[in-house]
Amino acid sequence: MMKYIIELILSIGKVDRRWIFLVIGLAVLLPLFFPLGLPIRATNATQRVYDAVEELEPNSKVLVSFEYGPSTKPEIHPMAIAILRHLFTNGQKVYVTCLWPDGQFMAEDALTEIAEEEYGLTYGEDYVLLGFRPGNEAVVKGLVSNIRKLYTTDARGTLVDQIPMMANVNKVKDFDFIFSASAGYPGTIEWVQYAADPTGVPMSTGTTSIQVNDVMPYVQSGQVKGILAGMPGAAEYEALIGSPGIGTSGMDAQSIAHLVIVLFIVFGNITYFIETRRAKKY
Amino acid sequence: MVIGAWISVFLTLAILSYLYKDNPFYKVAEHVFVGISTGYWTSMFFWTQIQPNLFGRLWPATEYDASSLWYKFYNVFGVFSSVFPEGGIAKGHDMHLIYLVPFALGIMMLLSVSSKLSWMARWGIAYTVGMAAGLRAYGFLNSNVIGQIKGSAFQLVNSNLPYFALVGESIFNNFVILIGTITGLMYFYFSREHTGNFGRLTKVGIYFLMISFGASFGFAVMGRISLLIGRFVDLIHYSSSTYNHATLWILLIMVVLLGYSAFMDKSAPIEPPAK
Amino acid sequence: MLWKRQIPILIATVVGLLTLFGWFTNNPGIESFVNDDATQWFDILASFAIFLGALNLMKLQGRKVLKQHSGWQYSLFTIGGFIFAIVAGFIYKGNDAVAWGFHVTSKGTLFKWMFDFIFTPLSATMFALLAFFVASASYRAFRVRNLEATLLLVSGIIIMVGRVPLGSSISSWFIMYLLVLVGSIAANIKLQDKIITFGVLLGGVVIVTIWGSLAGWPVDQPSIFYLPMLQDWIYNNPNVAGARAIMIGIGLGIFATSIRYILGVEKSYIGE
């Protein structure tokens, strides 16, 4: 009996990788149709972002920067939307910039969905889309010294001097908080190095899962107040603000897929041990 | 919108069909991707960099003078009115003729497409390399080295912090980070053999590095699965009746065609090697 | 030779020294050049490099089609895709209300349509494909051969499971039972004594069961075995230590390499 089980394990260990692809595909697809509704618990890093935003006085000026594109939209867009919801609920003034050209498309989609349709806010008084400017960290440095040199008009072509909420906003130090929704370069690290650190304006960030380890040292040293790590981070933030969104709906699929991969690793190692013991015997 | 949905679903499923095996659907999608992304980035960089920042500084609208030779030259190009609108380029810049330098370097780069003139690209590349070296040398030394060393330093005796805490700061946690950072750095010192006491310390260092790599692996898996979820959500969205069940139809056609080709491959006789 | 070798090296050295010392100089001319113009020139040259790449691509694909090399039919799709993107970028706007220049970042244009329905699905799916290969690699390649590999895998597994909602639903007592099982397997491999193995297993199970019954089986206590807490500790402490060591190493490496480029010691960018 034992021998039969061992032979079965070894034969599964040599299976064609396409069966593995199929199993992963199903592990991700099925929970999207049949959600499990697993409870989401916020980690410490996400809680710190929430607390930093919650501590802001109403009518604070918050700079939100969109630096992600379509390939990383599933991870970052949910957190950008959740942050906007939190800020608008608390009555903050939101100024949106983009260091990536695709970021402007993402920002427009997010602002249309949340600011315009959900909250019915007024453009120019409650939120403004300054838009994309090329130059990577030169844009961040430019914002720190003089916003009006960089932005003579906003993304819709209106002169910045004619936008009511831009009055008395001339440089980064005039903002109360910075949030960077970032998928790579330029992104969080440039905001920390050239804006938050030199000016002392508090900042938080949301990044893709892959980028998290690059930013963690800044979070640990307090230069960045917490971090939303990938789609799970977005789902945790949605749970904290009480508005489940796209992030939450993907979490069941994420959980099952992770479990399946862990089981693959464990199973693969069991096969490896059996093969090694056999090789030692002979 | 509906046509766009069908194209989007076709391209998504074509790329995913690579998981079965390399096939014409995947090759078509891959080649389209290369062509479209090259054209996309060309257009994007031209309209966001070259036209406003380069041409906008060589022929700004603020200093437009139709009688000057420089702007007469500009008006010749005015036939491309989208790029060179009448009256100069209004992007809020002043004239900086020094920008003729990057313009010249850029043209030299483009000329290097011909194999005889390929050396011309070196000037532009040399500028890029020199500039990046100068900027990054300071930036990385300041934030990555000095900044991180500052972050690792902590008060050995701090009555405000607990000795141990699983979540949040504690003296034990600060020690772990300090020891891990120092031993990790020691591992990268290859000018000395890793033996004896030094070897033991570098071994500790490598354990910390392995934990870090394991965490990076975990995050990489998390990121990739999230992207896959995003694609599946889109495919499910496009399978609705608003889009005429695009996903279902295209999936069916692809499965039938790939299955047929797999069947034909299996039943085709194995040809003897050519003599 | 002067044009092809000496002058590029001179350009790299002069520009490198200028930008490096620009950080430490108070001269307004140099400062304004380094802070504003130098990065703009960099971005302009990067754009020309993209154009060069596009030209090279069309040259290669065009040659493939003309000479009918193997797979030339697919090159037609590359050329077609490129032409479509250029038409959307330079020739046909699709929305007259938007000015040229703004059309690459505005809604309602052909360019945005191409971005939404062609570029986005292609780039997103290419990235998403890696999810499958990661799973396949996990199954076929990740083996616990030594302590280092074990640490890598264990920390990866704890992060993967602890970070998702499923991890918060797994009780710490389950983890403790799992550790008892692993401990008894390790004892069996090391000591090869059935009695000791059985003793470790039984003893472990009894201790955990009594402890759990007394505590009332809380899901998240003892917190050191609760996956989300353990994951948080690993993420914030040893992981940061390793990441920091790598960051410092990279910072020093980049500094050293930059100085080599500026001094002309490193000449790989001109192909030497």
Record the strand order, biggest sheet of chain A.
3-2-1-4-5-6
- Work out the helicity level of chain B: 55-70%
Radius of gyration of chain B: 30 Å
- What's the count of strands of chain B? 0
Describe the protein's architecture and organization.
The complex is a heterotrimer of chains A (282), B (275) and C (272). With 282 residues, chain A is an alpha/beta fold. Chain A has 2 domains: 2-29 and 251-281; 44-246, 3-Layer(aba) Sandwich (Rossmann fold). Helices cover 56% and strands 12% of the residues of chain A. In chain A, helix 1 crosses helix 11 (246-281), helix 2 runs antiparallel to helix 11 and helix 6 (137-145) runs parallel beside helix 8 (188-199). Chain A is elongated and about 80 Å long. The mean pLDDT of chain A is 88. Chain B has 275 residues and is mainly α. Chain B has a domain at 102-153. Helices cover 67% and strands 0% of the residues of chain B. In chain B, helix 1 crosses helix 2 (24-58) and helix 6 (171-187) crosses helix 7. The longest helix of chain B has 42 residues, at 196-237. Chain C has 272 residues and is mainly alpha-helical. Chain C is 77% helix and 0% strand. Chain C contains 10 helices and no strands. Chain C has helices spanning 2-22, 28-67, 72-91, 110-140, 147-162, 165-169, 172-191, 194-215, 227-236, 238-262. The radius of gyration of chain C is 30 Å and the shape is elongated. Chains in contact: A-B, A-C, B-C. At the B-C interface, helix 1, helix 2, helix 4, helix 5 and helix 6 of B face helix 1, helix 2, helix 3, helix 4 and helix 5 of C.
Name the features.
heterotrimer; B: 8 helices; 0% strand; extended; C: 272 residues; mainly alpha; 10 helices; 77% helix; elongated
Give me a quick take on this structure:
The complex is a heterotrimer of chains A (282), B (275) and C (272). Chain A is α/β, with parallel strands linked by helices. Chain A contains eleven helices and six strands.
What's the SSE blueprint?
The complex is a heterotrimer of chains A (282), B (275) and C (272).
Chain A: H1 2-13, H2 17-33, H3 44-54, E1 61-67, H4 73-89, E2 93-98, H5 101-118, E3 127-132, H6 137-145, H7 147-150, E4 177-182, H8 188-199, E5 203-207, H9 212-220, E6 227-229, H10 230-241, H11 246-281
Parallel strand pairs in A: 1-2, 1-4, 2-3, 4-5, 5-6
Chain B: H1 2-16, H2 24-58, H3 69-77, H4 100-111, H5 121-152, H6 171-187, H7 196-237, H8 246-267
Chain C: H1 2-22, H2 28-67, H3 72-91, H4 110-140, H5 147-162, H6 165-169, H7 172-191, H8 194-215, H9 227-236, H10 238-262
Helix pairs in contact in C: 2-3, 5-9, 7-8
